[in-house]
């Protein structure tokens, strides 16, 4: 067997590498699905979290991710991808909300507005946490306007 740290050969009964002293037999930590330095992941996370501005500002759910994406997209492919994902989701949710508002006359629009509002909030937070942990996230129910 070989040491995963330095590549030295060792017998199967050894607990530590005779060359570098690394512990042997311990499983290696799983690599994150999305590579990137912490600042890059933070910027990607902000693409998702900035959509919560829609709770305070009209169209903030689209403007927040758009601003972060436009400023940071050239610095990182991760931010570019997550920014597009966030924008696509927020545009899709806005369309679903407008349709729900039109259906208020038929009384099905009110529950739809509540469901889509909660989905928007919950999935935005889930996406931010996943991105912060270095995992790629794709929103469900998303129309891919930006590719």
Automatic annotation (TrEMBL):
Name of the molecule in the record: Putative zinc-ribbon domain-containing protein
Localization per Swiss-Prot or TrEMBL: Membrane
Major localization listed first in the record, in broad terms: membrane
Segments traversing the membrane: 49-71, 91-123
One Pfam family recorded for the sequence: MamF_MmsF
Membrane topology type: Multi-pass membrane protein
Native source organism of the sequence: mine drainage metagenome
Keyword list, A-Z: Membrane, Transmembrane, Transmembrane helix
Domain Putative zinc-ribbon, first and last residues per copy: 2-22
Coiled coil feature spans: none
């Amino acid at each position: 067997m070989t040491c995963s740290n330095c590549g030295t050969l060792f017998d199967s009964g050894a607990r530590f590498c005779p060359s570098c002293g690394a512990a042997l037999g311990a499983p290696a930590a799983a690599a994150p699905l999305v590579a990137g330095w912490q600042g890059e992941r933070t910027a990607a996370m902000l693409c998702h979290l900035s959509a919560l501005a829609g709770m305070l500002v009209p169209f903030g759910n689209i403007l927040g991710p758009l601003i972060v994406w436009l400023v940071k997209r050239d610095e990182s492919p991760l931010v570019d991808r997550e920014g597009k994902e966030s924008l696509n989701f927020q545009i899709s949710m806005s369309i679903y909300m407008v349709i729900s508002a039109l259906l208020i006359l038929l009384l099905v629009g009110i529950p739809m507005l509540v469901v889509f509002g909660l989905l928007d909030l919950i999935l935005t937070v889930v996406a931010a946490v996943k991105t912060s942990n270095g995992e790629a996230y794709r929103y469900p129910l998303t129309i891919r306007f930006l590719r």
